[in-house]
Amino acid sequence: MIDYPWNDRAGRFSVLRVAALSLAVIPALWIAFDAATGGLGAKPLDEATHRTGDWAVRLLLVTLAVTPLRRITGWNRWVIVRRMLGLAAFAYGLAHLTLYVADQNWHLGRAVIEIAVRPYLTIGFVALAGLAVLAATSTDAAIRRLGRRWSQLHRIVYALAALAVLHFFLQSKINATEATLMMGFLLLLMGLRLAHRAGHPLSAPRTLAIVALAAAFGTAALEVLWYGLATGVPWRSVLEANLMLTPWPRPAWWVLAVGFALALVPLVRQRVGRWVRTAKSVDA
Ligand code: HEM
Predict the structure, then answer these.
(1) Are residues 188 and 156 in the same domain?
(2) What residue owns the CA closest to ligand 1's atom 39?
(3) 126 with 248, same domain?
(4) What digits encode the pLDDT tens for the residues 201-248?
(5) What's the DSSP call for residue 106?
(6) How close is the Cα of 33 to the center of ligand 1, in Å?
(7) Cβ–ligand 1 contact at 260 (below 6 Å)
(8) How far apart are CA 213 and CA 235, in angstroms?
(9) pTM beyond cutoff 0.90
(10) 132-178 residue pLDDT tens
(11) Last residue of a domain, one of 116, 149, 171
(12) Containing domain of residue 39, as a range?
């Protein structure tokens, strides 16, 4: 039987797999379309490098969100899209490196030296090399062969995501808003993982709300630290910008909003469950 990417393991059509496939493929088509129609601006290779880097980080974080979503929603089927999303993140990382080398006029030696001497590129390279190891060990055969060591190895994905976000920060010039947002989501995901490991079930809205608050505070604090250290912007100004919701909420607010939205999921589940039980008892 042919293994179509939009089918689940049992060969049934899966809307979830279609959604993940679209998330993986549409950004690449969009970049290709812009490249073909002059939509990448005056420096197309540079713009395409940035866009593929952005999508590599975004898809990596979406991949990391699969396990917490499974625990929060109690719906195990999320797992059928994890490998596809992880491989897509790696593919965008690889395209990103290829575009970088193309931007160096394919001078491989120069690219290697640049990667070796510029810390932000070295960090990006380590992240990509790690993702390559995870991609290479994602086959069913590798999972069987590695046994318990597979999950130990794949735990490094959090460290790799942290390196990718650091690489993002280090190349950001004056505006580190998106890098801060990605770091905030990573903090949220790490918080959820820590809470679960500490024995706090992610099906409890209170746990999720506390993690959301902690991640949002962490995001604001790291933003203050980053701007203070990298640009010399006074900490008060960054903090004030974090407290105001205009002209646009700072990343900490988005992290809080997403975290609180997750906390609503078990609440809604509990309500619906109670409602269904009541309806059944009335029928009986
Ligand atoms: C050998 C590996 C890598 C190289 C050589 C590399 C190179 C670069 C370069 C040259 C830039 C643009 C810097 C500038 O314009 O000043 C960049 C930006 C970026 N890279 Fe990488 N990178 C690598 C790995 C990665 C990986 C593994 C990820 C993510 C998983 C990543 C994510 C990003 C992001 C998010 C940006 C910023 C995009 C933006 O400004 O919107 N990079 N990288």
Answers:
(1) no
(2) 50
(3) no
(4) 999 999 999 999 999 999 999 999 998 888 888 888 888 888 887 778
(5) T
(6) 21
(7) no
(8) 20
(9) yes
(10) 999 999 999 999 999 999 999 999 999 999 999 999 999 997 889 99
(11) 171
(12) 1-171
